[in-house]
Design a protein that fits this description.
Distance between the termini: 38 Å
Oligomer: single chain
Helix content: under 10%
Radius of gyration: 25 Å
Shape: globular
Structural class: mainly beta
Strand content: over 45%
Number of helices: 6
Amino acid sequence: MKIISLRQATLLMLPALLPMPMLAADNTLVVTAAPPETGLNELDTPAALSVVSGDDMRQSAARVNLSENLSSVPGLQIQNRQNYAQDLQLSMRGFGSRSTYGVRGLRIYVDGIPATMPDGQAQTSNIDIGSIDHVDVLRGPFSALYGNASGGVINVTTQQGQQPTTLEASSWYGSYGSWRNSVKASGATGDGSHAGDVNYTVSASRFTTHGYRDHSDAQKNLGNARLGVRIDDVSTLTLLFNSVHIDAQDPGGLTEAQWRDNPRQVASNVTLYNTRKTVDQTQGGLRYQRQMSENDDLSVMLYAGMRETTQFQSIPAAVQRNPSHPGGVITLTRHYQGVDTRWTHRDTLLSIPVAVTGGLDYETMTERRKGYENFTVSNGVTQLGEQGNLRRNERNLMWTLDPYLQTAWQLTDKLSLDAGVRFSTVNFDANDSYVRPGNGDDSGDARYHKWLPAAALKYAFDPGWNAYVSAGRGFETPTINELSYRSDGATGLNLGLKPATSDTLEIGSKKRIGNGLVSAALFQTDTRDEIVADTSSGGRTTYKNAGQTRRRGLELSLDQQFAWDWRLQMAYTLLDARYRSNACGSESCDGNRIPGIARNMAYAGLGYLPEQGFYAGSEVRYLSQIAAEDQNNVNTPSYTVAAVNSGYKWLVENWTLDLFGRVDNLFDRHYVGSVIVNESNGRYFESAPGRNYSVGLTLGYAFR
């Protein structure tokens, strides 16, 4: 009896669902006990999708940043700023490249909890690499079904504890005074199929570095826990907890001349104002899953968290003294929570197997934002880099309410259709409590609505080869930070900013070749009212709408295992992203490249990876030049960098010992790690390290 699975098609649309039954070709219902979080199937999913295992994320790596082992994903431009005060710079198919800090234009989930706030701003600092089970990177039209994002979705799932109980300790030491120590415990009682069975994974780590550049010290403490309970034969409960604390200096950007002269230096005002950032975030979640019947599943996700941030910026004191200026120190206290409830039903309609999922997603965030002068005055003496007088005090409320419906149809043995729609409502409400002479009332509110449809048609030539065509509409509202400032310096929210709307058409094909997978995707995305950086200075950026833009791209990837223990990974991305209308005022930039986006990216990695004994690997990354500003007059040089690693893994009875060393930027290339788009002072460049070294050790014991 040939079995056709609808589970992967529905999983594509939602971060975490219950196990789904499969429908046989003769429409006989067959219930499978497959676990709910085994990752999406790259071959069967009718979209551009890459699945990276947790073992791959940890292979010969520092286990600190997502940027370490995601270079093999086409379409994903992920760059380490070497600045832990500003997080990584992620963009997918060119969306998110304008972000001067945090992650923009993408939706990020960790165990079903959004790492993206209701306004679309995300961060990756709370992701524990040591606990990852797998990472799903979804690009293209179907990302619209996740709500307020245009570029794609990154879905991180942590490990579910299982027998036997295992303890693990890990250390890593690298150049520039960098080190990371971590511990992890995981296990389970029973096999998870009986009432009362429990599984758990608990981890903690500490990372510290002096940084490659001057004034870039950082420390990060991270804790993560996951506890699962089998309530009865048809329902489970999962408790999730995460906490992170970061103290980091902010080295800022450099001009091209400064970067070429000394890439490790910082601008003088950076040290004068002691630019730095502190982050504390704690969150918890509860997921309830129940198989209501052979045809129906229920999933409810509840979560809540708090994030406190204090940031010192390098804004000149003379500028801060302007009565309307909000100061050079920002303090934020954010309380966020949400609930996502969904029901999945499987049946047949006119003899066609079909799965239908309906749900409601509600997210809210309350923010208390204050601004202070980044200087104090005592006895006529001005002291820079210290929190001074209050200059801003406001309470912001953001919420989203998104009902959605997704369907998966197995039209024939070879032809399937996936279609869905989401109606997204995003609301902003700002209440200004700091109104003074020369500083008007900045209160205001805005609300945005958009229908977000997506559909894909897939044809399977044989069990190992298929092709698909998909289309969808994306929606991206301004974040509260983008609404906060106006380029004309006037008071009030920047309510002239409109949400961006993107229409994407994609065709692709995937083929299994032996123990490998080859995939290709060709796409075009047309965006109206794209939100782009207008001015950026002293850590403060204003934004504007760019009229129309177009992205055309090609994504190719190969993941091939051969000769038992050898593995070859290759990826190539061609992305032509351009303005189709003038977004530069008097000096037209119609036809210019959108800044922050590389036209060409390539990756090749070769590894010898047996289960135990000696292993080794090498990788090469290429990135073409990147425009730093709208006029395309300043560009970063293209670069090619290489890395090598080698290690030995011992498996002796209950013990596991893994020792490795690696060299990054093997040929000591001088290159720009990331770009601050449209920086008003011309300090666009954030330097990447030269040749650097690291060693790591992981010791584990299993109680068999």
